[in-house]
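Allow me, if you will, to draw on your knowledge of protein folds for a short while. Thank you for your consideration; the sequence and its tokens are set out here:
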Amino acid sequence: MHEPESKNFQTAIVPTLSVRNGAAAIDFYKEAFGAVELMRVASPDGLVVAEMSIDGAHFFLADESPELGNFSPRTVGGVTIRIGLFVSNPDEVAARAVSAGAKELYPVADQDYGYRLGCVIDPYGHVWEIARKL
């Protein structure tokens, strides 16, 4: 097994969300979750790839590219993964997401399995479970 070059290296899983209208999606995630745009690359035809962060948790988003096998949930009619967003105040974050245009799938509530958790679907078709441990 290859060792990382830096002793400060930390392994991470970083999702890339495929979306339609990446520029608008960037604005939504900023408003809904307080995301910070760390990097954006735009092609001449306006398609974007961006690196975002929500309180230090990184993710990428990119305009869908069917020729590379990257489809948005809106294109395929569903999702194959849900995104867990663990925050200190899930009620506040879920309400902000709904105010920004997400749809509540179920409200934030104390769950029997030890989390305060609710679920929204964003305007681009991604499902976010917003939670904290009880």
Observations:
- The first helix runs from residue 22 to 33.
- The helical segments are 22-33, 73-76, 90-100.
- Strands lie at 16-19, 36-42, 48-54, 57-63, 83-86, 103-110, 115-121, 127-133.
